Amino acid sequence: MPELPEVEVVRRGLHAHAVGASIEAVEVLHPRAVRRHVLGADDLIGQLAAQTIASAERRGKYLWLVLEPAGVGLVVHLGMSGQMLVQPPSVPWEKHLRIRVVLDSGADLRFVDQRTFGGWSISPLVEVDGTLLPESVAHIARDPMDAAFDLESVVGALKRKHSEIKRALLDQTVVSGIGNIYADESLWRAKIHGNRIAETLTRPKLRELVTAARAVMGEALDQGGTSFDALYVNVNGESGYFDRSLSAYGQEGLPCPRCGAPIRREKFMNRSSFSCPRCQPAPRSLGHR
Predict the structure, then answer these.
(1) pTM of the model
(2) What are phi and psi of 195, to 5 degrees?
(3) For residues 27-33, average pLDDT
(4) Residue 134's closest CA among 57, 48, 189?
(5) Is 264 a catalytic residue?
(6) For a FRET experiment, which of 14, 84, 128, 241 has its CA 20 to 30 Å from that of 277?
């Protein structure tokens, strides 16, 4: 699933190529693409009609377009394979095109989703701590790339967690934007095993971890995000290449870039965790698997 850097790449593309354009027509080509909009496809089409895309916004892994004059947010759930593409109308429709928007700029805004886990919905905007957010996103915490991100507040919240530190990092109500990839990379940089209990870590160590998360996601953003296949692309259909710089995630059996020990893969929350058995020793209660 796309994480903060991948979603920010898409947001920047939409800012450059779709913001300021008005919507002339909308086609919903698959019902699952609007299943989160409870009033259905016809209502979504009606609410989008004649709206102007005023801005493209993001918090963590959540993306939305602000529509004027309605003053609502078009929330875009990318899911596992969702793509937001800006295409000339002459480009043939993609095989998995789910929603097509005709813009007055002469371009199409296309939502392509092979696995149909993503979708669009319209949400009213509400003010939270001085920021306008879609109501459906209002519970999501600020992310490390947010100008108003409060590092010490997040460190305090993590210090109060009785769960594994990786589980706490993935909690989008504590700190948003971090998914499985960047959690593993951040934990590797901070030399912390993901199964360590958050409250047992010192505040300086937690501060180091969150700072590492900000750094690794910033580096990934500079490289267009992490693309393991053709599903993770920007609005022009181009893939990122941060996967070439990963130190832990997906590197099972390869030497740790820091110490040379083979990277280990373990099960965690119905997914996989990757860590260095030497740099990131497992808690004693777990042992080494």
Answers:
(1) 0.91
(2) -90, 0
(3) 98
(4) 57
(5) no
(6) 241
Tokens of 219: 């580096």
The identity of residue 4, as a single letter, is: L
Query: Chain-centre distance of CA 16, in angstroms?
Result: 19
| Confidence at 1, pLDDT banded by 50, 70, 90 | confident
Q: pLDDT value at position 234?
A: 62
- Give the pLDDT of residue 107: 97
**How many secondary structure helices (H) and strands (E) does the chain include?**
6, 11
Residue with the bigger pLDDT between 69 and 5: it is: 69
Banded model confidence at residue 289, pLDDT cuts 50, 70, 90 = very low
C-alpha distances in Å from residue 117, one per residue of 34, 46, 82, 83, 126 = 11, 23, 8, 11, 26
Q: Is the pLDDT of residue 208 over 80?
A: yes
Active-site annotation holder among 11, 59, 61, 161? 61
**Domains delineated in the chain:** 4-137 (3.20.190.10), 151-275 (1.10.8.50)
- Residues 2, 5, 134, 144: which is the catalytic one? 2
Is residue 204 part of the annotated active site? The answer reads no
pLDDT average, residue stretch 217-221: 90
Active-site residue (options: 3, 6, 8, 164)? 3
Which one from 115, 160, 203, 271 is the annotated catalytic residue? 271
Pairwise CA distance, residues 230 & 240, whole Å: 10
- The answer to whether residue 3 is catalytic is yes
Q: Which residue pairs from 197-202 have beta carbons closer than 8 angstroms and sit at least 24 positions apart in sequence? A: 197/161, 197/162, 197/163, 197/164, 197/165, 197/283, 198/158, 198/159, 198/161, 198/162, 198/163, 198/164, 198/165, 198/168, 199/159, 199/160, 199/161, 199/162, 201/158, 201/159, 201/165
Q: Confidence band (pLDDT; 50, 70, 90) for 244?
A: low
Place of tokens 């939409």: 14
271 an active-site residue? Answer: yes
